[in-house]
C-alpha cells in the first residue's frame, strides 16, 4: 500500500512539473510576442515633432530694449501752469548692453574719433538726451539729463549727481568747465504757449553762457515724432514741433549760439521720424542715437 501511494505521488509530481514547465514556456512566448508587437507598432504611436523655424525664436532687446522698453504716454499740459509733461525713456540697459552700445562704431567714424570729439562736452536735456547717454556712442561726454527735465526745472530739479551729491543742472555747471555744451529741450513743453517756452529757454541759455563763458554752445532743435504719433496727438505732433523750432532758431540767433537742425537730419522726406527708428513714436531706437551723434559731428562746426 505504501509503495503504491509513493508511486502515485511521484507520478503526480512529474505531471505538475511538466505543467509548470509548459506554462513557463507559454508565458515567455507571450511576453516575447508582446515585446515584438510593441516595437512593431511604436512608429505608429510616436508623436512627430514639427521643426522650429528660426524665425519663430524670440529676440529680447533691453528697456533698455530697450530706449525702448516701457515708455509712458505723454499727458497734455496746462498752458497756464507751464508744467512739463514727462515723456518716459526706456529703462537703462545692463552694463554689458551699455558697453556694447558705446563700443559700436558710427558709419565712417571710429570710436576714437567720437571719444576725442566729445571728450570735454556736456549734453543737457530731457528723456531724449538721457536716451543718448544710455544708447549713444559718446561715452566720454558728460550728461546733465533726466526724464521729464524742462527749461523751467533746470534751475531747481536735482537731476545731476556729482561726487555723490544730487544737484540741479545750473549748480552742476558751476563744478566743471566744458569745451562744448549741447542743449535740447521742447518735447516736454509742447503744451506750453510757445512764446513763454522760448522766453524760459532763453533765460537758461543766458545762464549757461554766464557759467561757461569759454564753451561753444549748441542749441539742438526738437526732432520730429513719427507720422502715426503726430496724427494721434493735438500737442505732440510735427506741425507743432516745427512752430516751436522756428522760435528756437530765432532765440539761438539772438543769443549768439549755434543752432543744430536735428529735425531735418533725423526726419524723413515728409518731415516725420521714420517708423522703424522709434519704439514709441517719440524716442529713438539704438542705431538712431548713433545717427544723432554723427549728425552733431558732421554739422556741429
Strand adjacency order, main sheet: 2-1-5-6-7
Output the number of helix runs: 10
Fold-level CATH name of the largest domain:
Rossmann fold
Structural class: alpha/beta
- Unreliable spans are 44-105
What are the secondary-structure elements, in order, as H or E? HHHEHEEEHEHEHHEHH
Q: What is the CATH architecture assignment of the largest domain? A: 3-Layer(aba) Sandwich
Rg result:
37 Å
- Strand count, sense and closure of the main sheet? 5 strands, parallel
CATH class of the largest domain: Alpha Beta
For the termini, the CA-CA separation is 132 Å
How many domains? The number is 2
Shape type: elongated
Average pLDDT, all residues = 79
CATH superfamily of the largest domain: SGNH hydrolase
Tell how many strands the DSSP assignment holds: 7
Q: Tell me the helix content.
A: 40-55%
Strand content: 5-15%
Summarize the structure.
By secondary structure, the chain is α/β, with parallel strands linked by helices. The chain has helices at 2-45, 95-103, 111-117, 127-135, 169-172, 194-211, 227-232, 238-255, 262-266, 286-299; strands at residues 121-125, 142-145, 160-162, 165-167, 180-184, 216-220, 258-260. It folds into two domains: 1-33; 95-299, 3-Layer(aba) Sandwich (Rossmann fold), CATH 3.40.50.1110.
Q: How would you describe what is shown here?
A:
The protein has 301 residues and is α/β, with parallel strands linked by helices. The protein has 2 domains: 1-33; 95-299, Rossmann fold, CATH 3.40.50. Helix content is 45%, strand content 9%. The chain is built from 10 helices and 7 strands. It has helices at 2-45, 95-103, 111-117, 127-135, 169-172, 194-211, 227-232, 238-255, 262-266, 286-299; strands spanning 121-125, 142-145, 160-162, 165-167, 180-184, 216-220, 258-260. Strands 2-1-5-6-7 form a 5-stranded parallel sheet, sandwiched between helices. A hairpin with a 2-residue loop joins strand 3 (160-162) and strand 4. Helix 6 (194-211) runs parallel beside helix 8 (238-255). The longest helix is centred in the first third of the chain and has 44 residues, at 2-45. The N and C termini lie far apart (132 Å). Residues 44-105 have low confidence and may be disordered.
